[in-house]
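Our consortium's second objective concerns turning raw sequence data into structural hypotheses that experimental partners can test. To show how far this objective has progressed, the report includes one record in full. It was chosen at random from the queue rather than selected for favorable results. The single chain below, 247 residues long, was entered without modification.
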Amino acid sequence: RHYRPEGRERRAHPAGRAQLDRLVRILGMPGDGLADRIGDYVDADSEGAFEAGAKNRPLLIPEELAMIPGVSAAHLYGGVHEKTGAAFPGLLEFVTLWPAHTIAAESAPPGPAAPAAKSTTASTPPAAPTGEPVKLPGPLPTGAIAGRRGVNVNTASAQVLACLSPEMTLPLAQAIVAVRSATGPSGEPLAFRDVAELARVPGLSQGVLDSIQPDLTVRGQVFSVRVESREGTARRNTRYVLARSGP
């Protein structure tokens, strides 16, 4: 959510940067200004404190974060804070390039209106108004991705949910995860069928719900699949991005 779509000038996206900044603090990572470093690297302008060496274009894979000055391997894969001695997880567990807001190819009709993003990401991806075309940096067919947008409240981690709004807290996000992970009397899952159902989460006020609702959805459109193939002693790891294009 750090830049607006191609075809228009990509400007910094303040809400996305703020969410990523909150995520960095929630994860306990070192490095003040990490969100701005990433934002300045991918946005199209040359305005910012961290423009030196910036490519000013969208990332193609999340691991490309490692090319950004000031972003270390520990930021991507996890490490230990040198000042506090506390371990922290890596960003790659929590961010994505793909399904931030509605993604639709040029000739695809806009999807149904829905409450709106690592994700991801915060999950950390491009932002666009509902139904506005976004040109993707991959070989997805026309119309492959359209419709719902946002962070999937049924699958997002508590840390990602907590970074969506200043009003959200990690305990509230953990309560959301606990409610969706429960099962009914017959063992049926109690996942959220609609964002409005978050009202049944203990302690989640209407004000907090209103602050995160634009960034949530209950059905994912894009999925990341990691595959390991082996032949003898040789191994190959591959990541595929799959788009839900039908029922």
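The partners drew two points from this record. The longest strand covers residues 222-231. Residues 139 and 192 are 32 Å apart (CA to CA). Both points have been shared with the crystallography group to help prioritize constructs.
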